[in-house]
Design goal:
It is a single chain. By secondary structure, the protein is of the alpha+beta class. It has five helices and eight strands. Helices cover 28% and strands 37% of the residues. It has an eight-stranded mixed β-sheet, with helices on both faces. The radius of gyration is 15 Å and the shape is globular.
Length: 154
């Protein structure tokens, strides 16, 4: 299990990844753009959103930071991005039962943005804002997704 700082950006995640990678002497950088992921033909993303970062991670000095861009269409769910609400805690836990327990416990008095569910990028993914206003992302297999998409591009 790991708790990871997760940063959201408004279309500049790639620049941030480059800066942090260099500034922190990253030993591993992974990134997936929305265009790297199969699109729903009924809801295709506009051209300007396809190059945005869907998911990324940089590893350095035994730590990790994950980042993504928030699509304009997601702002209706997540709200406008302002400095301060672009940081969340990402729990990546292989044990589904533990992930569900943490999700249920933290959702008490809070707001579930996306219930835990099977998605194309995770076998168990969800998001919530707890009763103290802290944003949480739950993911059963974030690294497996990044590795799978990156290897399929090569």
């Amino acid at each position: 299990m790991s708790a990871i700082a997760y940063l959201n950006f408004d279309g500049i995640a790639e620049q941030v990844i480059e800066f942090y990678s260099e500034a922190l002497n990253a030993n591993e950088v992974k990134k997936v753009k929305f265009k790297d992921f199969p699109q729903d033909p009924n809801y295709p993303l506009p051209e300007n959103e396809l190059n945005m970062i869907m998911e990324s991670s940089i590893e350095f000095a035994g730590g990790k930071i994950m980042m993504s861009d928030i699509l304009p269409s997601m702002k209706m769910v997540m709200g406008e991005l302002v400095k301060g609400n672009n940081v969340l805690i990402s729990l990546v836990i292989d044990d589904k039962q533990t992930l569900e327990e943490y999700f249920n416990n933290l959702s008490v008095g809070g707001n579930v943005m996306m219930p835990l569910s099977n998605t194309p990028w995770s076998s168990c993914f969800g998001m919530l804002v707890d009763k103290f206003g802290v944003s949480w992302k739950f993911n059963r297999d974030a690294d497996k997704f990044l590795d799978r998409v990156i290897s399929s591009k090569q």
